[in-house]
Amino acid sequence: AVPSSTVELGCSARGDPAPQVQWHKERGDLPWGRHEVDREHTLRLYAVTPADAGAYVCTAQSQLGTAAATTFLHV
Fold first, then answer.
1. Of 1, 21, 55, 72, which residue is least crowded by CB atoms under 10 Å?
2. Alpha-carbon gap, residue 9 to 58, rounded angstroms
3. Which residues, if any, are the signal sequence (predicted)?
4. Residue 19 phi/psi, 5° resolution?
């Protein structure tokens, strides 16, 4: 990603019952005040900096189990 740009990281999770979806950064916190997750579970990071680079994990959990996917952001 280009510094100062907006990045979208998608996460598709479906099921019955619908899973709860959460995002976290593998080492550190999501950028405070510069991120949001929409109803389709897309994580948006605003005004990215080199400090935002790293692994981001989307976790979907329901009473049937848990699934996780990791994506890597390079700034």
1. 72
2. 9
3. none
4. -75, 155
The predicted-structure confidence for 16-41, as pLDDT tens digits, reads as follows 888 999 999 998 899 999 999 999 99
15-40 core/surface letters (b: 16 or more CB in 10 A; e: else)? eeeebebebebeeeebeeeebebeee
Domain residues of the chain, as ranges?
7-73
Structure tokens at 35: 């991120």
* CATH superfamily, with its number, for domain 7-73: Immunoglobulins (2.60.40.10)
